[in-house]
Design goal:
Strand content: under 5%
GO molecular function, one term: DNA binding
Helix content: over 70%
Number of strands: 0
Protein name: TetR family transcriptional regulator
Pfam family, one: TetR_N
InterPro entries: Homeodomain-like_sf, HTH-type_Tx_Regulator, HTH_TetR
Radius of gyration: 18 Å
Keywords: DNA-binding
Distance between the termini: 58 Å
Length: 191
Amino acid sequence: MADETQSIDRRVQRTRRSLRDALISLLVERGWDDINIQELCERADVGRSTFYMHFQSKDQLLVSGFDDLRAALRAQAVIANTGASGSLPFVRGLIEHAYEQRILFRAIIGRRSGHAVQKRFREMVSQLVEEDVAHLVAAGWRRDAGVSYIAGALVELLAWWVDAVNGCAMDDVEQLFNELTLPVIRQLEGR
């Protein structure tokens, strides 16, 4: 019985991975607005009914991918204890991921990206920022505004970086982000 459940779980994981890989390759090739469910299914080599057993829409597939990325960044930050003093722990991992997956990040947050993809990416970054600043200030409009400001700054900096012809090094991007956002973080801390 356990082997059967494990086999089903592997099939589910394999199908989800195939659909996610198909979405990534189509995002890079065409952009979000030009992708439809049928093309996703053909690329992943699954039927439409299989797609709908796992996801209600291509947006839900996208969110699932961002949820996995958020969890991986959080785990990486905890394990590596990344982040310079005064920085947010997940930032280094996100910058590294953007560097390693530059072409994908251009499709996600670059100039040619669709609004829906950018919005979902920003929501993921906002969740990570929220988790990291929650202990600094009580919930309320100040924290909400600070989270929005920091997340927006990071997303826009990454978008500029992945689109830049003469891009700078990862360390420089992280340092610039930290320098620009440290005053906001200090404000949230009440310093």
